[in-house]
Amino acid sequence: MAGLLVSQPAHADTQQLGPTDETITTTIVFGVRHEEQLKRYIQETVTPGSPHYRDFLSLREFVTHYAPSPGQLRVTQRYLESYGLKVDKVFKDHLAMTVSGPSSAFELVLQTQMDNYKEDDVRHHPHRRHHFHRPRHQPHMPRLLLDNDVIAVVGLSNEYQFRPMHASKAHISHADALQLVPGSNTIATGVPGQYTVADVANLYNINPMYAEGTTGSGVTLGIATYADFLKDDAYAYWNLIGLPGKADRITKIHVDGGGDFGADAGSGETSLDVEQAGGLAPYADMIVYDAPNGSQGGIDMFYQIVSDNRVDTLSYSWGLPEIFYYPELNGGVDYTNTMKALNQAFMEAAVQGITLFTASGDSGAYDTNRSLPAPYFTTPLTVDWPASSPYMTAAGGTTEPVSLTGRCGSGTYPIDVQGERAWSWGYLADFYQTCYGLSPIEAGVFSEGGGGGVSVYWHRPWYQYGIVGVRRSEPGQSMTELDVNPTVDYLDLRAGYAGRNVPDISMNADPFTGYLVYSSADGGLLQGYGGTSFVAPQLNGVAALVNQRNGGRIGLLAPQLYQMLRRYGYGPDSPFHDITDGDNWYWEGVPGYDQATGVGTPDVARLAVLLSTHNGHHGHGGHHHGH
Questions:
Q1: pLDDT per residue over 456-480, tens digit each?
Q2: Is residue 542 within a helix (H) or strand (E), and if so which, with residue range?
Q3: Number of other CB atoms surrounding residue 21 within 10 Å
Q4: Sign of the CA dihedral 151, 156, 159, 163?
Q5: Which residues make Cβ contacts (< 8 Å) with residue 407, sequence separation at least 6?
Q6: Under a CB-based contact definition with an 8 Å cutoff, are residues 135 and 109 in contact?
Q7: Which of 28, 167, 146 is nearest to 584 (CA)?
Q8: What is the number of H-type helices and E-type strands within the chain?
Q9: Phi, psi (rounded to 5 degrees) for 292
Q10: Hey, which of 259, 385, 526, 607 has its CA 20 to 30 A from 164?
Q11: Residue 128's beta-bridge partner residues?
């Protein structure tokens, strides 16, 4: 059973306020038919030489082959209505339906009790609502729903909210003591911390694509987010840097009423997503889907996106540690089915040829540290969801070369990053220790960095087998609360698990070598912003360019990256730069694949040539092709 947002460990300061009598809305998700066949078909769509290479399915074809039967939907709907519940909507892909009614009706169907809670401790719970409802114990799926292949009921809990994956240097200790050595100022500023999309084009060899006339024209790129934004902010950013582009090209689609607007809601995240993706593909059309922040909003948003099948590429820069869905961290209630339900939407996107990107996180190798921080909790090696999905391409982070001067007593302390390296703020540790006597935790720089590591939930996908550098999960990883007496060990993570490795590919994400953003909700023009939040939309824009050059959709990118790694390595024809320096607080940048930067960073022009060499089934633009 799945919840609207998974909860963290139940602390003594979480007050139970008694039964809820609210009207609740949930989304019921059905399992796909012929799942193994679907997985094989997806693999064939991205395998050159396969009879189904780039032979993507239309929505109608997907429904015919893989969706539950109309009979299953009808029987389920009648059963729910017999309990006084109302089916408000059936998604066009037939995999999900939204259902509303009194909490008492859900309690009857699922044999659980819905309670209200109050949480005041925001130190431990920066992404938890103050008032929320959730099941008191594990709900039970009735036999009829199981027989009809229902895999999840999402929305029984509205406790928890996703976090945006952007970072800034504002919150670290003595941030004003670190000054940039400035550079020049043009459309591409060349100034770390004030980089624009034109700098990204310079850094990763995108300019040859523009020179040949590839600008994203004819392609629709999508953004999935939990916060509304002002379209004018994106146009203001592009105008500010003098970027030519298509006028009036942004469409908004509000799912379930849409997300909130404001700095706290994350509107700056949405603005930067649009500005980065649309800035790199300046003539692409854009659709921005936003939904209320929570698991049900996420499920409804992604099922809407794949049911619409209008976007060719899509990025999403929000997430949560995957272990936050485990029953041990949720009072015994298991929410992992929420991940399974969302993963199905990603599988549908893949078979339809939509290229998905997501941020790998900004807490380095210790993904839980942003929500359950040291020294109050242990920092087990963990990865972010949905970056750990096998059907997502996970975007990691690097630091570009930069020279900083730190104020140190009456003198200065030079900090030089010579070459591009895996992003973590570990390179500031000596400065803080020497000049201020602060540990990385005390200085606030731990564990900021590019997310990466090994999933302990999702198994290693086919495309990562045989890749040198792909690892199993490490031993001795536990989630323990340390500032209580006695300490509480919530969860021991499984060791030696052959899990999905993240990230897949990386680009610059360090706020010190970061970017300009224009966000009215946050006060206008901002500088020194970074995070893997930037990399996912940048790759989204790159994929839009590749789509245009290819004359159609390219599908799930991750497997194609590893095929190229096998074939070209890091030789003269390689589309990758190997990042062999730096770390993300645990995993090091080493020759070849690593959990700090994936396959490395892209040479976009070369990548585009290789991705558009084999164009599969010509003549249908990669969109809708019958059998």
A1: 999 999 999 999 999 999 999 999 9
A2: helix 532-550
A3: 11
A4: positive
A5: 174, 177, 178, 179, 413, 435
A6: no
A7: 167
A8: 16, 30
A9: -60, 145
A10: 607
A11: 160
Burial 141-175 (b: 16+ CB within 10 A, else e): bbeebeebbbbbbbbbbbbbbbbbbbbbbeebeee
Cβ contacts of 296 within 8 Å, gap of 6 or more:
4, 25, 26, 27, 154, 155, 158, 256
3-class state of residue 3 by DSSP: coil
Q: Which residue has the tokens 């819905």?
A: 114
Q: DSSP 3-state assignment of 396?
A: strand
579: exposed, middle or buried (Cβ count in 10 Å: 0-12, 13-18, 19+): buried
> What is the C-alpha separation between 395 and 408, in angstroms, rounded?
35
**C-alpha separations of 555 from 64, 327, 520 in Å:** 20, 34, 34
Contact present, 581 and 419 (Cβ < 8 Å):
yes
Q: What are 625's two structure tokens?
A: 């092709």
> How far is the C-alpha of 531 from the C-alpha of 201, rounded, in Å?
18
CB–CB of 34/397 below 8 Å?
A: no
User: Is 222 in contact with 311 (CB distance < 8 Å)?
Assistant: yes
Instruction: Give Cα 589 distance to the centre of its chain.
Output: 22
What's the pLDDT tens digit per position in 160-203? 677 776 776 665 555 555 444 334 445 788 889 999 999 999 99
What is the C-alpha to C-alpha distance for residues 149 and 151, in angstroms, rounded to an integer?
6
H-only helix segments in 281-416? 295-308, 336-352
Q: Supply the DSSP string of 428-481, one letter for each residue.
A: GHHHHHHHH---HHHHT-TT-B---EEEEEEEPPGGGTT-TT--PPPSS-EEEE
* Token pair for 571: 């030789």
Predicted confidence (pLDDT) per residue in 506-545, tens digit:
999 999 999 999 999 999 999 999 999 999 999 999 999 9
What DSSP letter does each residue of 347-385 carry, written as one string?
HHHHHHT-EEEEE--SBTTBGGGGTS-TTTB----B-EE
CA distances from 465 to 13, 470, 580 (A): 45, 8, 21
Strand order in the sheet with 23-30: 86-90, 96-102, 23-30, 150-154
Token pair for 406: 């730190």
213 contact partners, CB below 8 Å, separation of at least 6: none
Label residues 375-409 b or e (16+ Cβ within 10 Å = b).
Answer: eebbbbbbbbbbbbbbbbbbbbbbbbebebebbee
Q: 298-323 b/e with 16+ CB inside 10 Å = b?
A: bbbbbbbbbbbbebbbbbbbbbbbbb
Q: Using pLDDT thresholds of 50, 70 and 90, give the confidence band for residue 497.
A: very high
pTM: 0.93
Report the relative pairing of strands 393-399 and 384-385 from DSSP bridges. Answer: unpaired
For 604, the enclosing helix (H) or strand (E) is helix 604-611
d(CA 428, CA 405) in angstroms, rounded, equals: 11
Classify residue 180 by burial, with Cβ atoms within 10 Å: 0-12, 13-18, 19+. middle
Evaluate the omega torsion of the peptide bond into residue 447 and state whether it is cis, within 30 degrees of 0. Answer: yes
How far apart (Å, rounded) are the C-alpha atoms in residues 23 and 607?
50
Question: Please, what is the Cα angle at 28 between 256 and 257, to 5 degrees?
Answer: 0
Shortest CA distance to 10 belongs to which of 372, 339, 492? 372
d(CA 190, CA 194): 8
Cβ–Cβ < 8 Å for 293, 267: no
Alpha carbons 156 and 595: distance in angstroms, whole number: 35
